[in-house]
Write a sequence for this structure.
């Protein structure tokens, strides 16, 4: 690879991966960060443009995704299994959702192991994320609100606190 090509690659990688302080070069928002799918379908491309090949299509509205890079109107995202690529920002929302990772997860009235169970959620359910404490998060799914251990959901950082 020639010097010019290496320089272009370095500039692209610098913009795509974000600034040294962990913020996106386009939005100045933290990287990585969680978002959700606004659309019911979204093309995931190999690179940040319409000319790049579509590798697959995400097909779950409100699915939580993690943004790991930015480039113009494009965001590099990954799902809970690590699959990802580039999506146009218009397909994404700042609304926070999570995926239940435990079969028949108990939603509790209070953020305590022995608290009353108000509902149960199946593995794979997408829920709206509410407040989070050190080890517990409040979620809403199917008309039920409850607290779950943070380790049982995907779509929130382990050290994230939300009011």
């Amino acid at each position: 690879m020639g010097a010019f090509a290496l320089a272009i690659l370095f500039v692209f990688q610098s913009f795509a991966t974000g600034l040294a302080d962990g913020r996106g070069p386009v939005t100045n928002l933290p990287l990585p960060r969680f978002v959700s799918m606004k659309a019911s379908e979204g093309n995931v491309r190999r690179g940040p443009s319409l000319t790049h090949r579509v590798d697959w299509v995400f097909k779950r509205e409100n699915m939580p995704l993690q943004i790991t890079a930015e480039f113009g109107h494009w965001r590099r995202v990954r799902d809970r299994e690590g699959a990802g690529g580039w999506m146009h920002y218009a397909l994404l929302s700042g609304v926070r959702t999570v995926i239940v990772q435990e079969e028949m997860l108990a939603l509790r009235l209070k953020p305590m192991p022995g608290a009353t169970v108000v509902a149960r959620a199946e593995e794979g359910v997408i829920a709206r994320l509410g407040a989070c404490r050190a080890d517990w998060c409040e979620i809403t799914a199917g008309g039920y609100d409850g607290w779950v251990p943070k380790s049982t959901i995907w779509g929130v950082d382990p050290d994230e606190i939300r009011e």
